[in-house]
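Summary for the funding panel

The consortium committed to producing paired sequence-structure records for every protein in the target list. Below we show the first two records in order, beginning with the earlier of the two.
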Amino acid sequence: MTTALPNCPKCSSEYTYEDGSLLVCPECAYEWSLIEERAEVVDELEVKDANGNILQDGDSVTVIKDLKVKGSSSTLKIGTKVKSIRLVDGDHNIDCKIDGFGAMKLKSEFVKKS
């Protein structure tokens, strides 16, 4: 499976190619890092809580609904505070550690910013 390379940020050429850890545009000779390109994609990730507030890495949130924890007989109770969240791409877009539960992923629709 091949992944599509991004267009050149300077001239928008679609003919970019990889050269080691760099991306190169053959039309304008611009070179940039693939790591920088991926960082920009992560920066563009916009995650909103149940009230529509935009969440950021390091925010604290509160659970707004009792949630069953998969693989456990316990539930995550409404009002549980979660500190220092990390946003990730995917269905469960919050990565966090919760006291008494450990590392887990949450959906942003079940939390509110605190």
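The next record, for a separate protein in the list, is shown here:
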Amino acid sequence: MDTTLLLLIIGIFAGFFIQTVIGFGGALIALPFLLIVMPLSEAVSYISIFYLISSPIYVYKEWDQIDKNLLKKIAFSSFFGVLAGILVLVYGKPLILKQALGVFIILFVLNSFRVKKNVVILKKTKHILGFLGGFFSGLFSTGGPLYVIILQNETTDVKTFRATMFGTLALVTLMRIPVLIAGGVMSMTQVYNSFYVLPFFILALFLGKKVYLKLNEALIKRVVIALLFVSGVMLVFKV
């Protein structure tokens, strides 16, 4: 087994295990592993392939818990964000934006310790965050933390939050895949290599679900905050 395939397996397994447990974070965990052995555009393509596989599974299982109205509200701004993000991915040099996202995530985590209650997000701010979530989803597949901010202010319990995160990331993935193909970023070679990773990916989904069922709401929230902080640091320094 070569190094590229090994790190691809480790990254996808770790990322989607966390994704299944808390509702987001797959790309945040997988991306640092993948960037060791491949360019950013190729890493985004691999992550998008596995999001495409996992999204129908997540949405089917969590459909009743998803806040559909909230999903509709952020869909429009997210779509234009995804388009803008992939354009930068294909034609630009986005590493400085990767660091900026990391700084934003760290500041959000620090603020969560200072503020006891969720900050009220205005309607226009929600659209801006939706656009930025789509933008970073197109650029790095890591828009989840921005959607976390919206959903934490709009959902009432961890089950609705987690399910709606699945729905949001599924929606963004459906937007992202056609644009990646049209932009020449995704190739059949990546699809072929993904078959080698598929058994480990399925194992990650299975184990993640088992772990989720044994965790309480307070612990899941602490895991979310810890994951956000670690991923923010990794985005700032792992360039």
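Regarding this second record: The chain has one domain: 3-237. Residues 3-237 form one domain.
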